[in-house]
Amino acid sequence: MYPFLALAGALGLLSVGFGAFSEHALQPRVDAESFRYLMTAIRYNQVHAVVLLALSLGLAAPIASDTWRRLRLAAWLMFAGTVLFSVSIYLSVMLGIPALTYFTPVGGVTLMLAWAAIIWAGWSAAR
């Protein structure tokens, strides 16, 4: 499904751009622990951008409608979870607002639900 291809590209672009910004502009201005949080957010952003890319390609394949719907659910959850998880950390460190990290665990749970939806799609398609 093409919107997910574009969203995967946007997440990939965000991860590379924010990675460069973090290394060159933020690292000298933040403490080591905050920088470690940024690196975790960037890693999650990169990994899940690639997973969303794979899901978008899977959605373009000729698959059963039930499997397609489950993969689409997984893709939406993957996108939302990545944004909530990574962007909450990016903004928290960049703006110095620790309360923004309250969204981080919501993003983590959303990512776990996305992975569960992938399991559900695979399990039900194999039946």
UniProtKB/TrEMBL annotation:
It comes from the Bacteria. The keyword Zinc-finger does not apply. It is found in: Membrane. It is a multi-pass membrane protein. One of its GO terms (cellular component) is membrane. PANTHER family: TRANSMEMBRANE PROTEIN 256 (PTHR43461:SF1). Belongs to the UPF0382 family. This is DUF423 domain-containing protein. The lineage of its organism: Bacteria, Pseudomonadati, Pseudomonadota, Gammaproteobacteria, Chromatiales.
